Each structure stands twice: as C-alpha cells, then as structure tokens.
Amino acid sequence: MNHKREDLKYMEKAFELAEQGLFTTGENPRVGCVLVKDDTIIGEGFHLRPGEAHAEVHAINEAGEQARGSTAYVTLEPCCHHGKTPPCSQALIAAGVARVVVANTDPNALVGGQGLQQLKDAGIDVTTGVLAELGADLNAGFFKRMREKLPLVRCKLAQSLDGRTAMASGESYWITGEAARRDVQYWRARSGAIITGVETVIQDDCRLTVRPEALPEKDHNKPQFFSEQQPLRVIIDSQLRTPLNATILQQQPVLLVCAQASEEQKSAFREIGCDVKPMPGLNQRVDLATVLHYLAEQGINEVLVEAGATLAGAFVEAKLVDELVIYTAPVLMGSSGRPLLDFHIDKMADRLHIHTISMQAFGQDWRLRASLK
Description:
The protein is α/β, with parallel strands linked by helices. It has helices spanning 5-18, 55-63, 88-95, 114-121, 132-138, 140-148, 178-189, 198-204, 263-270, 288-297, 309-317, and strands spanning 32-37, 40-46, 71-76, 99-104, 125-127, 152-160, 164-166, 193-197, 232-236, 254-258, 275-278, 302-305, 323-329, 338-339, 355-362, 365-371. α3 links the parallel β3 (71-76) and β4.
C-alpha cells in the first residue's frame, strides 16, 4: 500500500522515539507517538517502563490545547483497557485529536482492534499499516508472546572460520574481537532473559550481565536501568551442579531450572537469593519448551540463549529458536575444536535451512543474523 509522504516521515520519527524504550519497557511493547498540526510536531513521547505513562499521554501532555484537531502518529494501536495506566484511546479522544495513524494493530487480546474501533466510533479518522514492518521487528518478542504464549528466542554463537566455538579443552576466550563483543551487549540489553547451561557456568564462570559502558556507541544515550535491574539469568542445570560460589549467582535475578534435585540442594540456592524451578522432561533432562512457556508467563518477550554447543543444539533441534546471531572470526581453530552446534542430522533431506536477515562487519569479525522459522 502506498502511504502519504508526510505519514511516512512522521511515523519514522515515532519509531525513533519508540526505540528509546528498547532496554526498559519490560513486558510492555516499545511505543512512540508524535502529534502533528499544520506540518509541525507539537508533542512527542515514548513509553519508558511498565506502570508509567504511555507514549500517547506524554505527547498529549506536551502538546496541551494544541492537540485539538491534530494528527497522532503511534507505532502501535492505542490501548483501550485499564491496566496499570488508563486507556490511551480515551486520552486521544478527550484531547480532540482528529486523525490517528498507526503502524501495527495490537495482538493483545485485551486490545486487538478495539482501540481503533473506539477511535472510529468517536469520529476520528484512522489509518493503519504505515511502516508496519518496522513495528513487527521492534516488537517481535511482544507480538510472539501475545500470539503464541512464547517469547522470541535468539541464539547467540561465536565461531572460528572453520566452525569451532572452543578448543577441545573448552577454552574459548576470546574468539571474536571487542566490536563483536560490544554488539553482544546490545542483544543482552534488549532481552528479558538470558539462558545458559551449567557446563558454560562451570567452564567459563561467566556473569552474563549487561555492562552499560560496553554497549555500542549508538546505544549509549538510550535510557537504561541496569544498575537497578539486570535481565533474568536462567541456568539450565538438570542435577543442580552449579557451584554456590559461581560468579553468575552474585547478582540477581537468577533462575536455576532443574530436572530433579533434593530439597536440601534447592534450599541452598534459595538461601542466596536464587529461584529454583523443577521442569523435568525426558531422560532426566530439563524440558526446554516448558522453560520458554514459563518465561512467557513471567512477561518475558525476548530471550537470548548464550550456551555451549550441546544446549544451543538442543534448542535448535527442538525447533525453539527463532533467530541465530552468529559471529565469525577470521581465525582457524582446527578439527579437534568443539562444533558450533551439537545435534544430529543423518540425511541431507533433513538439513535445516536458515534465512539471512542481515550480514554486518564488526571490526575483523562478521555477524550473521538469520531466521530459523
């Protein structure tokens, strides 16, 4: 569909605002709003964090009385229900907005077109679908959780040119350069949960936290609250073998997911502030699908898997991964090194096809972002 040039221009601005909430909106979608009158922006806003005012309200408050007769450009359908904040559809109606331009309808069953209908019933002209593809990418995790009760799952991997992720001994620091590692901080920062395995915790004694100072320069000015709240770190640990003095446990929140463990084992972790959830599957393993459903129930929209070849391979083999984020360094590590993914395919006809989203250089390394679904 061809949209008016001015609609595209102002919706682009609304998306620039929405991206300011990339690291902070939690279970809520990232939304931006611009109010325009006589080809002039009179109000703008974005949603910062759960429980606080939505983008439309910020824009209306900034515009004041000028909002009457204006056009509102909103990246997502205005909400029409009382949640932690009042409905934005009613705020737009009360402000006297004459036209509302929306990128995406809200897949939340509490909204689902009802917000747009309220605007139409109030005599407001409504246009939808403007730059919808930008909204589908920005809020892919929220959209998937609303539609499928599952978070969007990205699997981050780093490999040598010959497809090795670690030496046979497990040594893996560092395959990629600083620029690629900074980019990893970006994917962590936009994720509600980071999943790893007990073997990675034991081998690397990792933190898996977001370090704001290590974010790419383009993201330095985005709001963030990582000094107050880190993404949930999830350790897949069937038999609860994680050392109690592991570095990752020193900063909460941490969730350990096991298949079986004694009450004494679970109590030891709970005493240091960790949550422990048994989610048994087959063969005394953790049921990974159950883990993802649980995370969705906790309001997690995006998950980043940072794990070794076995756990990452298990996620891929179970068809639970939406995107691969693979960094390739211009080094060779030899045939005895550990593979990128550990799972079995016996026939060429069964091989998995990936669909390239983007290829980008980071210093001497390359990042492939690809879809598996």
